[in-house]
Automatic annotation (TrEMBL):
InterPro entries: Glyco_trans_4-like_N. Residues 17-178 form the Glycosyltransferase subfamily 4-like N-terminal domain. This is Glycosyltransferase. It comes from the Archaea. It holds the Pfam family Glyco_trans_1_4. GO terms for molecular function: transferase activity. Gene3D superfamilies: Glycogen Phosphorylase B. Keywords: Transferase. PANTHER family: GLYCOSYLTRANSFERASE.
């Protein structure tokens, strides 16, 4: 077995969501730093399957559901004996903790909480999702580090598991990479972006209630009262047909495009006039930092939790109340009239670069420092 440090990253699938993309980014960055990296996936299906970089070993458990990966992950840990185990998303985090216990191995186990668990448990009807907070309260103490992707997520997680928020490390998502910058400069195959005469408003994400694209479409109709514009929303999901029907009902379907998942959303961001996040809640809000890295002005709802942190309370883009289409429209019009300078946005985006973030995660894997400078990886619960 190689003498290089070994790290396993565990994630449910390779769907094109923000959490999955972050894990692929981490795998690439750690591999570039000389780690033997194993990207361990319950089911290696999804749009990101073709994005895995050379040098990263993909382990596909081909499990029908996440918990079925437990014995396979335990065997993987016994076989590879990694120095670090990083999991992302609460279900995968729990399976990773259980696998470490079952395998009787001792990798530094880092669990990443990507979203506002309180909101997620409330939004899902299935009983197993509502059990997640209780399982977190019981089992997260067996991890070595709990990482939250924003201060708001740290506070939410601390409340759930019964610990002080200062005992949870905040490490932002590593969304700004050299690959992003390179892709942002590529051409876009969309007729609205090849002609810069009409402003283009862009949204992106899973088409689910959390993202509240209905409010964005209603806000866009209000924008059209004042100026000619077009709206593109990237992504796919259960609400796609409902969004198309809403655009038709509002009489703006000829100005709204829903092209689905695109392999390079950064090129769209770079050519859009404004990027809008309309979510009800977020853990971090990757797409805001990505758009800023592309030099594109942004508007966001002031949802719990990441956007206000990314935009520094509105310093780098307007924050509007959740669900308020009128306020959202006014903010979009303001940004179209007076956008923040491109270089200012790009400089801010560097705070979320993979170089900065991976340094922090490396220190957790090797147990170098805690917030107070001591080596004390395990989270003390109250």
């Amino acid at each position: 077995m190689s003498s290089q440090p070994r790290v396993s990253l565990f994630v449910p699938t390779l769907q094109g969501g923000g959490a999955e993309l972050v894990m692929v980014t981490l795998a690439s960055a750690l591999s570039a730093r000389g780690y033997d990296v194993y990207l361990v996936v319950s089911r290696a299906e999804g749009d990101l399957a073709s994005e895995i970089p050379d040098g990263v070993t993909v382990i596909d458990f081909e499990s029908p559901y996440l918990v079925a990966s437990l014995p396979k992950l335990a065997r993987h840990l016994r076989k590879i004996d990694p120095d670090g185990l990083i999991a992302s998303m609460n279900g995968a985090n729990l399976v990773a903790i259980w696998a470490k216990i079952l395998s009787n191995t001792s990798p530094t186990t880092v669990v990443r909480v990507e979203n506002m668990t309180t909101y997620m448990a409330r939004d899902y009807d299935k009983r197993r999702h509502r059990l997640i907070p209780y399982l977190m309260m019981v089992f997260y103490r067996f991890s070595d580090e709990i990482v939250a992707v924003s201060e708001g997520v740290a506070q939410d997680t601390a409340k759930i598991i019964g610990t002080d928020p200062d005992d949870i490390r905040v490490v932002y998502n590593p969304v700004v990479t050299d690959n992003l910058v390179q892709k942002a400069g590529q051409p876009v195959d969309h007729p609205w972006l090849s002609n810069g005469s009409v402003p283009v408003i862009l949204g992106a994400g899973r088409m689910v209630p959390q993202k509240d694209f209905c409010t964005l479409i209603r806000a866009f109709r209000r924008v059209l009262r004042d100026r000619n514009a077009r709206l593109i929303i990237l992504g796919k999901g259960e609400q796609r047909e409902a969004l198309l029907e809403l655009a038709d009902e509002l009489g703006i379907s000829d100005r709204v495009s829903l092209p689905g998942f695109v392999p390079n959303q950064y090129a769209y961001m770079a050519q859009a006039d404004v990027f809008v996040l309309s979510s009800v809640h977020e853990g971090f809000g990757n797409v805001l930092a990505e758009a800023m890295a592309c030099g594109t002005p942004v508007v966001s709802t002031e949802c719990k939790s990441g956007p206000a942190e990314i935009l520094d309370g509105g310093e780098y883009g307007p924050l509007v109340p959740v669900g308020d289409s009128e306020e959202l429209a006014e903010a979009i019009l303001t940004v179209l009239d007076d956008p923040i300078k491109t270089h200012v946005l790009r400089e801010r985006a560097q705070d979320f670069s993979d170089r900065t973030i991976v340094d922090e995660l490396e220190s957790l894997i090797h147990g170098q420092t805690n917030r107070d400078g001591t080596i004390q990886p395990r989270i003390p619960l109250l």
